[in-house]
Amino acid sequence: MEVQVAPLRAWDDFFPGSDRFALPDIKDISKWNNRVVSNLLYYQTNYLMVAAALVSIVGFLSPLNMVIGGTVVVLVFLGFVWMSHNKDILRKLKKQYPTTFVVAIMLSSYFLISYLGDVMVFMFGITLPLLLMFVHASLRLRNIQNKLQNKMEGIGLKKTPMGIILDALEQQEDSINKIADYISKVKE
To answer: Which residue windows are transmembrane per the record (predicted)?
Structure first.
């Protein structure tokens, strides 16, 4: 399946008035997780643009440390994903507590970067964009178009970069994965 870049959503849709934002129900973690995953998939290009702007600013101010920080985070992420595929206990942790898994990646990256270079580059160039994405995805209510686009990606009609990352973190819905498996078998 060919990877497609999701369209850039209109600013009015991405960041409208307060009527489209609400605090998540922290008692229902599964519903909150579903909202975050859906928004990450739907607004992924907008998030990429915001993150690219922040990374560019920090990278302009400290280019070498930004490259080192980005490399460390990517390598730690890949290491954690590889370990979670080879160790059942880590796989269960990643599936049940995705936030804990991401926090472990970020803390490990932080300690490695503090050993190798500038911690402020990590804080503003890497952590801040991720935090902004998580806060927006947590607070933004989903709309009909958001839900429809996510179902299309989930059943295998299209594949995006954020979908690949969420698959690596095992954050796609199980029922959608079953439908995608069925469709791929029918195609064969």
So the answer is: 40-61, 67-85, 97-113, 119-139
SS3 187: helix
- Average pLDDT, stretch 22-47? 81
Residues contacting 72, CB < 8 A, separation 6+: 109, 112, 113, 116
What is the three-state SS of 94-149? HHHCHHHHHHHHHHHHHHHHHHHCCHHHHHHHHHHHHHHHHHHHHHECCCHHHHHH
- The per-residue pLDDT for range 168-187, each reduced to its tens digit, is 666 655 444 444 444 455 55
- The one-letter amino acid at 106: M
Per-domain residue ranges for the chain? 28-146, 155-187
DSSP codes, 5-17: PPPPPPHHHHS--
140 beta partners? 21
| Phi/psi of residue 159, nearest 5 degrees | -130, 130
Q: Is the CB of residue 137 less than 8 Å from the CB of residue 59?
A: no
What is the number of residues in the chain?
Answer: 188
Q: Is the pTM of this model over 0.70?
A: no
How far is it, in rounded angstroms, from Cα 34 to Cα 55? 27
Instruction: Give the tens place of pLDDT for each residue, 78-106.
Output: 888 888 888 888 777 777 777 777 788 88
- 179 contacts: CB under 8 Å, gap ≥ 6: 154, 155, 156
